[in-house]
Design a protein that fits this description.
Elements lengths: L7 E7 L4 E4 L5 E14 L6 E12 L2 H10 L5 E14 L5 E9 L5 E4 L18 E2 L6 E2 L5 E2 L40
Parallel strand pairs: 4-6
Antiparallel strand pairs: 1-3, 1-5, 2-3, 3-4, 5-6, 5-7, 8-9, 9-10
């Protein structure tokens, strides 16, 4: 095999408020617990069945931690892209334990708020290549963590630190804007 791929994509709801921790060097990490559910109809009884999986997500991208801190709460619906990472740790009895979690860091990570910003600025906006799109509210979150405005809306950060370049439609060109294409219902 020529290479490998470590990529996780999840759509789910936060089961608790995000946990934000600070490092001694001033950096921050946001820890999320995301629930994804699968439903089906039992062939024998005809009853609706549901199974929920819980995923631990660690976000190290400085800008995205700021977005999580300001806008996400228990119950928020999000789309994330990250990588699986297993870490080894020891419990109180000294036994080795392993935890596998989704890690978002750098340019490869994506966080999209599917139910909109709960109290932030309102901007328009198209997608940028490495940008983190925030759904329903129409905000685009760039790697810097700010809000960029592609259609003249206000920027929540008061600066243009959310701009991303390359790829995406950038809110220009023929056809409709990304925010205009959003429906109230997700097609899956």
């Amino acid at each position: 095999m020529a290479g490998s791929l470590n990529k996780v994509m999840l759509i789910g709801n936060l089961g608790a408020d995000p946990e934000i921790r600070s490092f001694q060097n001033g950096g921050k990490v946001a820890n999320l617990r995301i629930a994804t559910s699968e439903t089906w109809k039992d062939r024998n009884s005809g009853e609706r069945q549901e199974r929920t999986e819980w995923h631990t997500v660690a976000i190290f991208s400085e800008g995205l931690v700021g977005v999580v801190e300001r806008y996400l709460r228990k119950g928020s619906k999000v789309y994330i892209e990250g990588q699986l990472q297993t870490r080894k740790w020891q419990d109180q009895q000294g036994n080795d334990r392993y935890s596998t979690e989704v890690v978002i860091r750098g340019l490869g990570g994506v966080l999209t708020m599917l139910d909109g910003a709960s109290g932030g600025g309102s901007g328009g906006g198209g997608g940028g290549g490495g940008g983190q799109r925030s759904g329903g509210g129409g905000n685009d979150w760039g790697q810097g963590g700010g809000s960029s405005s592609g259609r003249g809306g206000s920027s929540s950060g008061g600066s243009d630190w959310g701009r991303t370049g390359g790829g995406g439609n950038g809110g220009s060109g023929g056809g409709s804007n990304y925010a205009d294409d959003l429906d109230d219902d997700i097609p899956f």
